Fold this sequence. Notes:
Elements: E1 2-5, E2 8-12, H1 18-24, H2 31-43, E3 48-55, H3 63-75, E4 81-85, H4 92-103, H5 108-114, H6 123-134
Parallel strand pairs: 2-3, 3-4
Antiparallel strand pairs: 1-2
Amino acid sequence: MFVHWAGVTSLSVPTLDERAWRETEPHTPHPRKRLEAVAELTRNGIPSSVLVAPLMPGINDDPRQVEEVLELAGEAGARNVTGIGLHLRGELRDVFFDWLRQYRPDLVDRYEELYERGAYLRGDERKRLAALVRGRRGSPTGHSPRRNARGISGRDQAPQLRSRSEQPRLFGG
């Protein structure tokens, strides 16, 4: 749900569909709250991105639903939006397939095909999912920011952090 890498904070917002969210991510913060966090981070000068992840065929890959996430991410000030298909590594594969059999038996055969070679979606399906956000890749406005020689745009650079001794303490002391 939260990643910090190369000076950019990323929050996952896989769907805004209430049913899909409750079924696939129980006990997690509501996706709209995550978008509110992106907006708050942005207001405070912290570059933030949104990961539409995991994208799950037949569950949260409806183009209209993805477009809504993209629009709200743009409104929240996300620096970029990236879509990532579901990875089923290790024990997660069995857990997910058990969930499918219980809640979405209509999708079991499809997922067996999509993941027949392992933990990652077939290439054609990864490309299809990437195309859902491709027009918006780079930034929520659909335009990639100019980048310097190191590949970082001026607006993507993290704000200068204070030294550890100047950082406020979360729990006093």
